[in-house]
Amino acid sequence: MHRGEVMSRMGKKAAPAALVLLLAGCGPAHAGMRNPPSLVLWGMSFNHATIIHCAIAAAAAYILVRLLAVNLSRDHPRRGQVVLETIVDTFLVLARQTIGPKRGGWYLPYIGSLFLFLFACNMMSLFPVPNLHFGGETFNDYNNNGLYDPGEPFIDMNGDGVHNPGFQFPAFEEPTTDLTLPLTLAVIFVVILGHGSGIRFHGVRGYLKEYFSPGGLIGIGMFPLNVVGKLAELISISFRIFGNIFGGAIIMSTVSGLLHYFVAPLGMYGYFSVFCGVIQAFVFTMLATTYISMEAAEDPDPGHGDA
Amino acid sequence: MGIANVAALIACALAMGLGALGAGLGLGNVARASLRSMARQPAKDPEFFRYMLVGQAITETPAIFALVVSFLLYFAGGRALEAPNSPAQSLMFLSAGLCMGIGALGSGIGSGLVAKEALEGMSRYPSSQGQLAILMMIGQAWTQTGGIFALVISLFMLNGGGFNQLSGANDPLLWGSIPISAGEILGIARFAGAGIAMGFGAVGSSVGIAYIGCSACRSLADVPEAGQRIKSAYFIGSATAQSPSVFALIIALILLIRG
Amino acid sequence: MNEETVRLLIGPITQAFALLGAGFCMGFGSLGPGLGEGYAAGKACEAVARRPEEYSQIFRTMLVGQAVTESTAIYSLVVALILAFH
User: Fold this and answer.
1) Backbone phi, then psi, for C14, in 5-degree steps?
2) What are phi and psi of A103, to 5 degrees?
3) CA-to-CA distance for B151 and B130, rounded, in angstroms?
4) Does residue A254 sit at the B interface (CB-CB below 8 Å)?
5) Which of C20, C52, C63 comes nearest B193 by C-beta?
6) Which of A96, A141, A167, B33 has the fewest CB atoms within 10 Å of its CB?
């Protein structure tokens, strides 16, 4: 059930309450129906929908923070300033508690912007924007998914026998329902930041020593298992947010379908999109902080610790 | 409608049923602990309610994974398959469903236990509330790693992991009367083995890590000043306790990939 | 069922049971170690809370205990690998 389908079915209904219908139209698409890769370069496939959605989410997070941060004042803080200070304080405390009072502050900008970006990503399905076409050849949309599928008839304007899609602006959906984004973020935060700080604080030698964890002859045998264990961190952190957001999207599109796209299940949107979106963004951020802290944490007992 | 379609629908029901079983037990535990905490400290009602909601939202995660898999299975069962009578493909669906269902069982129960222990700790020592909330979320997230591995294996199976290499279609049939070929026999064994390995492999580690989380939350509530050391023991301990499920993941992937 | 069919069947069926056995071996073999390692680390957390000054001693004991507990999981892994590449 694609959002485009939702929109077009909605268009066929009489609309007594335009706002309710508009909200129902933002039923998220499920990832099986996500737009196929639109560009293949050097053997890598790119999905322009995910890229555009990520850019929009990042811009939205930036603009949100800039709007909250206008007219800062020490004596009479506005409501936005209080919200922003709460967010910053939360993550500063989190970083200092998990990584350590001295090093924690250094990681704050990364951790905070990760949370804001994921938050903006998870909120995207609340904005009902359908698939838009610019300059493409007209086609007959048999399955109402808003996209050209092979086999659908089209008017061949330039006579080349191939459908020219023009530019398609993708319907809004959470970019986190595409596994690419969580995996990329996991690589950035766990591998580059986490393992990078491991090398920075313990040196290359100390970092490599972790892979031979118990040490000695057993350590050499444990090497491949330790490598797989490190890879499992990436899998667990990225599939968690993907599965949750994707599952919420499935639930909401199913319920919207059961309601015939006539009434928006606002309570479910509130729970699955807003509440679970915030919680999962926070959990991702917190786990990233924890993985960084496993490499970069200050020694819990500098006196006689050998751990 | 072939045998594979039926298998997909049965697997859909199994995945969601087992997944909801574990999450249900866990959610009940969280609610019980929060009610007990509210009774102990009526003045802090709204805070306990908030932490209960957060804990339940994370406890629910394995059930949502099971929902994803059963939804995909439902669609796989509904649409016309290329090989509707292939026993190997039926086993693939059944095994994907069972893997996710059993994997979600352990993590659902476990993350509920962690949240329960954290909430009761909060009611006993309200001063360490913030620290306990963070430890609760981390503990629940780590408990669910086994469930996530099960999700990975199920999605891998459903996306045709290993099925493309099946040489079943063109092989000569081995038994004259029973239409089954060598490729099909191997396919059945491979999918069943991968599902069992990952499904049951996830349970032990999940419950074990949940036990560490419970102990860590209890200890942190009782002795907040040793928080840094408890957390360090907890992190390293659960990273080690994770390894059996990582072994299971390796074996399941080997069974699936090796054609 | 004639000689020829039996000869054709015996190979795939042996391999199939080996693969199935690998799955069973790893699945049930990791149940116990997972629980046991969790139990060990949980007790270690409680011990650290009771005596924070003995942290490094407790930590070392925990790691050794977990490594020994894990050896059964490693045995299952080895057996499962042998069966899978049978």
Assistant:
1) -60, -45
2) -85, -20
3) 31
4) yes
5) C20
6) A167
Residue C86 tokens read as 């049978």
Matching residue, tokens 């909060």 = B122
Integer Cα distance of A148 and A154 in angstroms: 9
Quick check: A307 contacting C, CB < 8 Å? yes
Residues C41-70 have pLDDT tens digits of: 999 999 999 998 888 888 888 888 888 888
Nearest to residue A216, comparing CAs of C76, C41, C63?
Answer: C63
Q: What's the gap between Cα A4 and its chain centre?
A: 21
pTM of the model: 0.81
**Residue B195 and residue B96 in contact, taking contact as beta carbons nearer than 8 Å:** yes
Chain B positions touching C44 (Cβ under 8 A) are 233, 237
**DSSP secondary structure code for residue A139 in this structure:** B
* CA B190 – CA A290 distance, rounded (Å): 36
Nearest chain B CA: its distance from C32 CA (Å): 6
Q: Is some CB atom of chain B closer than 8 A to the CB atom of A30?
A: yes
Whether B220 and B131 have beta carbons less than 8 Å apart is answered as yes
The two structure tokens encoding residue B167: 């040489």
| CATH number of the domain where residue B167 is located | 1.20.120.610
Q: Is C57 on the interface with B (CB under 8 A)?
A: no
